[in-house]
Protein zer-1 homolog
Amino acid sequence: MAAKAGDNPDSLMTLATIFCLRNLRKTMCYQGFRNKLCLRSDIFLPSEICDKLVNTYMELVHTDSNFEPEESFFQLFSDPCSTRLTRVQLREDFVRDRDLEAIQKQDLIELHLTYCNSLSSRSLKSLISFRETLVSLCLFGCNHIFYRKGGAPLACNEDTEDEEEESPASRQALETDFNFQGFNRLRLLNLGGLPDEVDAETLLKPLKSLTSLDLSNVQLLGTAFLTQWKDRLASLVLYNVDLSEELVSTIMEMVNLRHLDISRESRRTSKFKMSRKILTAIVQRLVNLVSLDISGHIMLDNCTVPHIEEAMGRPSIEPCKSSIYPFQELKRPLQFLGLYDTTLCNVTHIPAYKVTGSKNEEQVLNAIEAYTEFRPELAHRAINQLFDIARIQHCSQLLRALQLVIAALKCHKYDKSIQVTGSAALFYLTNTEYRSDQSVRLRREVIQVVLNGMEQYQEVTVQRNCCLTLCNFSIPEELEFQYSRVNQLLLKILEPARQDESIQRIAVHLCNALVCQVDNHHKEAVGKMGFVKTMLNLIQKKLQDRTCDQVMEFSWSALWNITDETPDNCQMFLNCRGMSLFLECLQEFPDKQELHRNMLGLLGNVAEVKALRPQLLTPQFITVFSNLLDSKADGIEVSYNACGVLSHIMFDGPAVWSMEDPRRDSVMDKMMDAIQSWDVSSRRNINYRSFEPILRLLPQSIAPVSQHWATWALYNLVSVYPSKYCPLLIKEGGISLLEKVLELESSHPETKDMASKVMEACETFKEDPMESNNGQEVNFGQRG
């Protein structure tokens, strides 16, 4: 059997790393002075393990809400005699100055800091400590690292107060004493988003051996300084840097460039027009290029061959057939060509193996892949285009599409635009059309990022998209691994008194599905989260609006499910004015059959709890239940459930019946009449997981009508659904209890007759277990 998409298991290294990080005190560490986390003295960890620990730790912090960060985690790597770090990737505001200070004795080779806005110029001092070993450095989006906190100089006291640590760096106190003097081994540098106040030329001047430089979104006062690396630079990224003739001329001198990126976010912001002459010069002068990105540029029309001419033949990547004139001079196809948000991506013959653009699914996926990490504004647009492909057309590269969207959502957890478009795309990429091709592992990854989005954003669009995506999964089975978390998030959505109607409807539907056919300990746990109170609040709100809609019906259905064989939840229902709301709904909506069925099903659960039955034994409630015996709503269901409630009450005997009106005998007579009126072959909108509440009513003589109702229920179920309910009845010891019914003199003759037929049906089933009632059996919703 072929593996499904995304089914590759994690490596043993990954699994062991995650286990250690979740159990630091049981594996590598102990609790030291003042609860400080300390590394055990007999531990020595090489760089391969230390790098994995730190980088996985950062991923867990950002993607797993159940993971608890450790205040002193980075202190574990303070001593290079016991731990060795070489390649570290840190991101987002979670990273503090003290974290870099903790590891400043390490001989780092790579340090990637991305969007670390909590870092101040204190971290520049830590960078200096890595200057002799650092080969690759990224400071992308670290907007405050070149500014002092409170005006403190760079050589500040190492014992800076913790209170200062938490305050943002002041944008007024620019650090002027730092440059890259002494970083002699540095080859790869990313300064994307460098503040305008920082002079890039002065900062970079000491670096003599750079081979890769990223100055995305950097304002360059001059460009001549770039020529100091003209013989060494292999990669130059100038995304969103304003092009000029001077800069283009400077770029042409860098003859060893293999990767050049002069792209822009959008044509709308571009003043520079990309001409055939400039593209030709790039191809002719930079002969070593294998990767070029000119996305977002306005292209002059003379760049492409006439449409009639280029439409001939199948699409080709051969340079000589290129639809873009300047690229006909390439010696070989480019490995990568960025044409996103340009007219060139629409031509037929493009001489590159991988092209970004918006013409087709391949180009869009390439764009998401290329731009997610450092250009969320472009990734957002590309994901939006993928959304259209999945919604209107068909996504042919499902695994890749899902993995790229998941990666974008993980990488930009705090970017609302990515979360909106990503969650919308996931809804279409996980629907029934694609489901059979997806592995359990991949679908779980989707669930994780969806829940991350729900957790981070209370905004209507994100919440709706995430809830809709969850509806594509088998509930509760596929959500059980995150059962507590998803319930908490849904209840949080339903807290506001005036929630968006569509979100409310979807969230209540999910809540109902989540408590349907799960173990009782799950229901009890969800009950303690406030589930019962939340549902009753929704019902109260609908009553105030005099509206009986899906939210109202789903809320009662959810209460029916969550109270099934869970006395604590039944008690909560009573404590939260549940019976008052029942009466109000009955009075306000006398003709809503589905509503009545759900409410009576719930009250059947309450009536099964002996300690709670006295609260139902009032003239008002008994009269209501007695009147509902005559209901024809939803077939026999409302009448059946009302009779079930009364059967449990009658089972407590005449001693507890203290009221004069209605009389116990008259209610029992009415119950018997109702049972006689039901068709035993009725198909049912109910699903029993256990017969225990019914079976306890069989071997007794205190309330023969209760015994009669219980026997009718079993007779109906084993007759209509033998393959489902005969095994259940046999398993739970029902046959011996039915034999006792036959032995009791108090049992009605009709009761004994039905008991015999139930036993015969089970015997027949044992002899012919393939019997399935002509294949008509179906699965209904949970019995409340």
About this structure: The longest helix spans residues 749-767. The CA atoms of residues 450 and 466 lie 6 Å apart.
